[in-house]
Every structure is written in C-alpha cells, then in structure tokens.
Design goal:
Number of helices: 12
Structural class: mainly beta
Helix content: 10-25%
Number of strands: 42
Length: 922
C-alpha cells in the first residue's frame, strides 16, 4: 500500500471523478496491467484525500502497555483496520496503554505518544500506516498527521510482516488468518543452525522435512502426509521448483518412486510461508494439499531506517562435518529516487558426518552412503522500484551444487545448476476497485550425473533438465454493500514444464536402446497447467466473515514415450552337404589327407581304393551338412504418443467467527486436483543398467488425483495476560482429507504387448484418508518464552491399485512402490528459553519427540508397518547481541548424541553437532 498525502480543492474533485469513472469502467486484468504504465509519469502521483471514514464514531479500546510488535495485532483487531509491522527492528518500541472509548485517530495518538513513532490513516480509512519508509515524501505539513519518527507498516493484507510474538517468532497476521498457515521467519531460520534447507520444517506442525535423499541439498516437504510430484507446491517468490526424479538416491538399493528436487539457499530467504490447504487464490494451480513459498530478502530487510545502504555478513562453522556456511548480502537505495538493489553471495561446504552413538535404534550408516558431503555456492540479485501506486521488482537466484551419492561400494557424482528468475509488477492506487498484482517467472534446473561403472553397466553420463516458466495476474476489488464489506479477488495463472533427458556411454553408442534404462525416472515431455480463480470475502457483521470461491484448473500432457518388450526365439541354420569327391580324386585324397593320418596304409592303396574311398567320397566337407539352433533375444520397440488433458471446477469456502476479540474459530472446505507429472505420464524404460528398457511402460489411462479437505480450527491471541507486555498466541486445527485416484507404482498391461506385465504409475483403487490434529502456541513474557507444536496424523491407504487387462494378461492390482513412507503419527516439539541483559543475550532449548515412520504395508495385526524407531532429541540454541551491528548465534543440535532416522526419511541423522554463527550488519 503506497503512502497517501493530502488532496484538496481541484485534487479532491479530480479524485472523485476518477473514482466515478472507475466504477463505470472495466476492472479486467488486462486494463489493470496497462494503466499504471501510462499513468505513472511523475513523483506527484502519490496523492490522496483524507478519508472521511477515519473520523467515525468512537469505539472501545482496551490495550495494555506493551511492545509495538505485540500491539499491532491487538490494535488491528479492536479497530477493525489492517495494521501490520513490516520492520521487525521496530518491534521493541514500548507503547502506551489505551483504555476507554476513542476514535481511531485518538487511540493511535494516545498509543504512540512520546514513542518517536508516527502514524497515518490511509486507504479510505481501511489501513493504518505507521511511518512511511519513503525519504522522498515530506509529511510534516500534511493535515491530521502527527510526525515523530519513520517506521513502516505496509500492505492491505499484512502478509509483508515476518516477525511477531507467535511460535518461533511467527507474525501476528498468521493468528488472524482463518486457515492452517505457518511461517518460519529469517530470525528463526538463523537461530536454528540448519545443515540443510529442509531442516526448517522440523518444528512446524503438520510438516515434515521429507529428506528422502541422503546428501542431496533438496527440498521436498511432506505436508499432512502428502509429498512429492507437486502434491505440495514449492516455490521461490512464486517460481515453482517442479523438478522430479526417481527415488533411491543417497543409499537406497533400487529405484522405487519419485522425489522432489527443489533447490533453495536459505541465506537469501526472509521467510518461509506454509499453507496446508488449497484455496481459490493464486499459487494453487495443480496443488493437492497446499504450498510452501520461500520469500527472498528485500532492501528493507537490510537497510536501517534513515539510511540508504546496508547489509549483513554471516559466517558459520561447526563440528561433525559442518565445515562452513557463509553469506554476504548488501543493499543500496537511491537517496531521492524509487530504486533499490540487493546483491548477495553464499558458500556451503559440508563434509561426511558421524551418526549418533547413543541408543539402540536401527541405522543405515553401514549399508548406505548417506553420510557424504556437498559443496555449493549461490548468488542473488534483486532490483526493486517503489513508484507510489506502482511497485516492481526483478530477482535472480543462481545456485550451483556438487555432491555425491551411492549405495554399497558405488559412488556417483552429481552437479546441479538451478536458476530462479522472478519479475513482479503491482499496482495499488487509491481506488478500492484496484489492488493488482502480477508476476512472470522462470526456473531452469539442470542436473548432470556421472554414474560410476558397475558389474552390469559401464560409466555413464546422464543429463536431466526441467525448465518451468509461467505467470499470474490477479486483482482485488473492495466494495461497501448493504450486506457488509465485500472484497473480490480474481485472476489467472499458468505455467509450463519442459523436461529433457539424455544418457551417453560407450555401450549406449553401440546400443541406443540402452539409454531408456537411464532416463526412465527423468523422462522428456511437456506439461501445461492453467487456472482461473474467483473468490470473495463478505463481512456482514463484526463477528462473522464469510469467504468462498471457485477455481477452474486445466492441464495438458504432451509428448511421446518409448518402451520395449522382450522376444526370445531360436534361429536354425542349415549348411548343405558338399561331398568330398567334389574336391578330391581318390589318389589326391589318399596322398593329402588319408595316408598322412593313417601311415600304416601307405603301401595299401588298392585296399583303400576298394574299401575306404567309396564311403569317404560321399562324406561332407568340414563345415557343411550341418544344422545349428542359436538362441536370440530381441527388444521390439513400442512408441506411445501422449496428448491428454485434465480439468475440474474446484470450490472452496470458509466461515470465520469472532465472538470475542481474542478467539476466532473457523471452518473451511476445499477441493483440489493434481494432474500427473511428466515423470508419471511418460514413465518408460528400466532400472539403470546396460540393457533395453523393458520393465516400465507409460499408463495412457492414468487419472489425476482429486482431494476434498475439511478443516476446523481456531486462532487465539492474548496480550497483557499476566504482565503488561506478555502475550499468548495459539493456532490449532483439525482436518480430514479424502484423496481419490492416488498415484503409486503398480502393474500394467498394454495393448501392444499381450503376454507381459509392466511396472507403471497407476491409480489406487479406493480412497485414501488423512486425518489429523495440529497445534502451535507460544507464551512470550519478553524475559522468557515457552512454546511448542504438536502433530497427530492418521492415514488409511487402499491395498490395491486399478486392475488392467488386455484380453490375454490381467494384472494383480498389487502395489509395487509408493512415493516415500508414511509420516509418523505423532510429532511434538517443546521450545523455551530466557532473555538476559536487556534482551541482548538469549538462551533456549528444544525437546523433540517423534514416533516411528510407517510403511504403507500392513503388519500381522492390520496396522501400518513401522520402518524406523521412535526418537527424542534435545537441541540448545542462543544468541548474544554485542551491539546493533554484531550478533553471535550458537546451537548444539542433537545434544544427547542420539542415533535415529528422522521422520519420513531413509537416512540416519547426524550425531551431536556444535554450530556457531557470527552475524555482522553494516
């Protein structure tokens, strides 16, 4: 939301005429996109009228004295306005108590009196802007403005904030959102001492790291039991990380399913937002169970108030293979202009680690090469422009990662490049009809694998690429109706995936069909996904909000796949008899062949002529008169052209109640559709090896997965409970999800090959159920805090897949493999700590308890089989701020050195690890 200054006279009249014209004009997305480029021609466009709504009737306020970070949410709830703290550094400013009936302006004046913080009311009275963050605008003479010091609160939705008083520093807007949303901010990421990006999910309710690839620095989170193949969208500022590969990396012995290959360097991340249910909004196309978005840093995160440049450097060292993680970020802002730039560099060096030594839990350390390290570097660039009504940005994250993986005595080498480019353009003028957002993005992933020679294969090079690009446009229009305040959000999004895969070796050069055995889990193909969405939110009374929408998802898979069959037969070769007499006379044969072989007959030629020659002359010459049978194996080639579409109308709805200020229950409903990925649709070939791919074949009848999710939850926020500046934040939810046509590996027959069964991606025959309870809560008294999260998850899986028959062969319906194991039933985290020396020094501890990861197969009692052991770990962490510029962070992960396999993983975790990080701001 831009800063709005006062309009009077002709400016007021012009503004009314503009609004009237906009009411009559279309607010179609195309018009919204074009207009700001034509209208934004001067710096004087940042103007507005003083809205009459801000001078409304008085309302009751009961806000105790507390920190600014805590008061923002309380004031927003009691005033009914959008108020968000976007600068975490201002969160410790102490505000005044406000008790009694006041107008919004009077309450703000009392709240911030003497604090050095300014305020304005903008957006037609709907938004409170505290400070401006704009050095180019002078507010000192603006009517009705109390000028103290600059601090910024921006955004109509408040989602720009990344820090607050919730669990792990969760911002307050999360506890005002009627949906299962979790946020891990930059401070929580840096304090945790993560070895891999996926570690940030370990303490989030309903979410698991899903680290299925030993040393791979990849991200494939498991959300409420759903994982892999785009079931949960992973993105960087909206750029989707769609790369998929077969499992069995980092130690597994065979390829079994798919694994997400998202690459994200947390050195450049300001927050991770996790949505655990889909809705009719941007970013949900093709998602079955939610999305995880990594939001990158901006100039405001690095530049202090009143400055035009800033930055930070982080250096981490540790034990147990934690060799080095370091980054440097810098930002500059033009003193009197709208532009700012951010640039950064990151380096990571991880060595082989040791597993824990305590406990009798099973381990994979002796059977899998899961302890191997990695070496990577990344760069980041972002340019931003704030032109008042219009905001634009362009960012680019480049990542290079080198690592090894393997099983038994074989080690393969991986080299991965990942580029994420995102361009955004937002237009938010004074009109309540327009709050436009758009983006274009590209994600280019290329993996080179050097597979070492094996008994069954020579050294092979494999190059796998996935280029994804897309965009979105959306607009939000707000109305005052007789039924209450109404907002409509509508727009479109689309993206395309293009996969390439090439295998080369000496054997493949001789036998090109062998390539299909290496590209089977990374096939070439194309996938298009598009979505139109419309949702509305109505607030008929202060105590209830109704929202609902519909999304139309469409997708297309196009390409071809080649699979092989096996044909064994015998080849009979007959050579006619060529008689000896055709080549020798009796005397020549006697002298040249018979006599040398029979010396005793040298003087008995007459006897030879009478008795031997008549028979011998009729015999066949050597190599003639023979019949041989040679076994032959052929691999006939079968080509399949695939061009099919999927589509569905997907409704969603939410009812939120606000019976009291601190308690906000809600109930929601959502439908979602996930089309098959390129891997699932074009799957063909065999396990890697020097042979033709005759094990796998594509399933031309593969259906999309469809899910229906029901959720009931509540948000609770308390301020000034026991102390003046303490706070309680609680978020809890219960859900039930039904998934039809869940995709796994099973058996298939084709019409081209009647006598053979193939492995393929198929749909389960029945409904998959996922039910769970989730809780996140935190009590923060500034001098100490205590919080935690809890997850209870139960899943029920069908035991059979769809059955195929081609008239000759019928499949059994047995399941071959699944994409990962089942997340544990219970995951608990208890987090607490204390702050000392005016909060310069903090010391905290975490207790984590997780029950066994499960298999989708049943044990003798009919329960899901447990494939790991339960575990309990303890982590210590803390920080000391020497001053505003330098902070030392430290962590001891797995303090008790437990030996365990993490939730939803197949690889033993590191043992006790000490990590120290120095953060310096400049």
């Amino acid at each position: 939301m831009r800063l709005q200054t006062c309009k009077t006279g002709s400016g007021e009249k012009a503004a009314k005429q503009a609004r009237r014209a906009m009411l009559l004009a279309t607010t179609a997305v195309a018009v919204s996109f074009a207009t700001p480029l034509l209208a934004q021609t001067g710096a004087d466009t940042a103007n507005s009228q003083r809205p009459g709504g801000e001078q409304g009737a008085t309302r009751p306020f009961n806000i105790p004295a507390q920190s600014l970070s805590s008061v923002v949410g309380a004031f927003g709830r009691q005033s009914g306005l959008q108020v968000t703290l976007a600068t975490p550094a201002a969160g410790n400013v102490r505000t005044n108590a406000v008790t009694g009936s006041f107008t919004v302006r009077e309450a703000l004046s009392r709240l911030l009196a003497g604090t050095g913080v300014n305020f304005r009311i903008a957006g037609n009275g709907r938004t409170v802007v505290i400070g401006t963050g704009q050095s180019t605008v002078d507010l000192s003479a603006a009517e009705g403005t109390t000028v103290l010091e600059t601090i910024t609160l921006t955004g109509k939705t408040g989602r720009n904030s990344i820090a607050g008083s919730g669990y792990q520093g969760t911002p307050d807007w999360v506890y005002e959102t009627p949906a299962s949303v979790s946020v891990v901010g930059r401070e929580a990421i840096q304090s945790a001492g993560v070895r891999n990006t996926r570690d940030v999910f370990n303490r989030v309710s309903g979410v698991y790291a899903g680290e299925g690839n030993g040393s791979f620095p990849t991200v494939s989170p498991n959300v409420r039991g759903l994982q892999e193949s785009g079931r949960v969208v992973v993105s960087i500022d909206g750029a989707r990380q769609n790369a998929q590969r077969g499992a069995a990396f980092g130690g597994a012995t065979s390829y079994t399913a798919s694994a997400g290959q998202g690459y994200v360097d947390v050195a450049f991340i300001r927050a991770v937002e996790i949505e655990k249910i889909t809705n009719a909004r941007s970013g949900n196309a093709g998602s079955l169970g939610g999305k995880v978005e990594f939001r990158t840093v901006s100039a405001d995160d690095l530049i202090a108030e009143g400055e035009n440049k800033g930055g930070e450097a982080n250096v981490s060292r540790g034990t147990n293979g934690y060799d080095f993680q370091g980054s440097v970020l810098g930002a500059v802002r033009s003193p009197d202009g709208p532009l700012s730039f951010v640039a950064g560099y990151s380096r990571t060096i991880m060595d082989e680690y040791k597993v824990g030594t305590k406990g009798e839990a099973r381990s994979t350390a002796l059977t899998m090469k899961d302890l191997l390290g990695r070496d990577g570097w990344s760069t980041f660039f972002k340019g931003e422009g704030d032109f008042g009504d219009v905001k634009a940005s362009l960012s680019w994250m480049h990542q290079e990662n080198d690592f090894v993986q393997g099983a038994s005595e074989v080690i393969d080498r991986e080299s991965v490049r990942n580029d994420s480019v995102v361009a955004k353009l937002d237009w938010d003028p004074e009109s309540e009809l327009i709050d436009f957002k758009s983006s274009l993005w590209l994600n280019d992933n290329m993996t080179h694998e050097l597979r070492a020679a094996r008994k069954y294969a020579v050294e092979t090079n494999l190059d796998m690429g996935l280029r994804s690009f897309g965009g979105s446009m959306e607009n939000t229009s707000r109305f005052d109706t007789v039924a209450g305040a109404l907002s409509l959000n509508y727009g479109a999004e689309a993206f395309r995936d293009i996969a390439t895969s090439v295998a080369t070796s000496a054997k493949i050069a001789e036998n090109p069909s062998f390539a299909s055995s290496y590209t089977s889990f990374s096939p070439a193909g194309r996938r298009d996904v598009a979505s139109l969405f419309l949702n509305g939110e109505l607030e008929p009374a202060d105590w209830i909000t109704l929202s609902g929408g519909v999304r139309y998802d469409w997708s297309r898979l196009k390409g071809s796949a080649t699979y092989y069959s096996v044909r064994d037969y015998m080849v009979t070769t007959t050579v006619p008899c060529d008689a000896i007499r055709n080549h020798y006379t009796a005397l020549d044969y006697f002298n040249q062949v018979f006599a040398p072989a029979n010396p005793s007959w040298a003087a008995r030629y007459a006897l030879y002529l009478a008795r031997v020659w008549p028979t011998t002359s009729a015999n066949c010459m050597p190599g003639t008169g023979t019949t041989t049978n040679t076994p032959v194996t052929e691999y006939p080639e079968h080509n399949v052209d695939i061009d099919r579409t999927y589509s569905a109308w997907l409704p969603s709805a939410t009812i939120e109640l606000k019976p009291v200020d601190w308690f906000r229950p809600y109930v929601s409903y959502s439908q979602s559709l996930r089309p098959p990925t390129i891997l699932e649709a074009f799957f063909a070939g065999a396990r890697p090896g020097d042979s033709a791919g005759y094990e796998y074949a594509p399933n031309q009848a593969l259906r999309a997965e469809k899910a229906t999710t029901y959720e009931v939850g509540a948000n609770m926020s308390f301020d000034g409970v026991l102390l003046d500046d303490d706070s309680i934040r609680i978020k809890m939810a219960a859900f039930r999800r039904e998934v039809k046509d869940y995709i796994a590996l099973g058996y298939l027959v084709t019409d081209q090959v009647l006598d053979r069964t193939y492995t393929s991606f198929v749909n389960l025959d029945g409904t998959t159920y996922m039910r769970g309870l989730e809780f996140e809560g935190n009590y923060d008294a500034r001098s100490f805090w205590i919080g935690g999260s809890a997850t209870f998850l139960k899943t029920e899986w069908p035991e059979k897949t769809q059955v195929f028959s081609n008239g000759t062969t019928t499949t059994t319906g047995e399941i071959v493999a699944w994409p990962g194991d089942v997340a544990p039933k219970v995951k608990l985290t208890l987090d607490g700590g204390m702050r000392f020396f005016d909060e310069k020094f903090s010391l905290g501890a975490r207790l984590n308890h997780v029950t066994p990861t499960q298999s989708r197969t049943l044990d003798t009692e009919g329960n899901l089989r447990e494939v790991t052991d339960p575990y309990t770990t303890v982590d210590l962490y803390g920080s000391y701020a020497f001053n505003d510029k330098a902070t030392l962070r430290f962590a001891v992960n797995n303090l008790t050195d437990r030996k365990y396999i993490p939730a939803a993983s197949a690889y033993t975790a590191p043992g006790r690890t000490f990590i120290a990080t120095m953060n310096v701001k400049f």
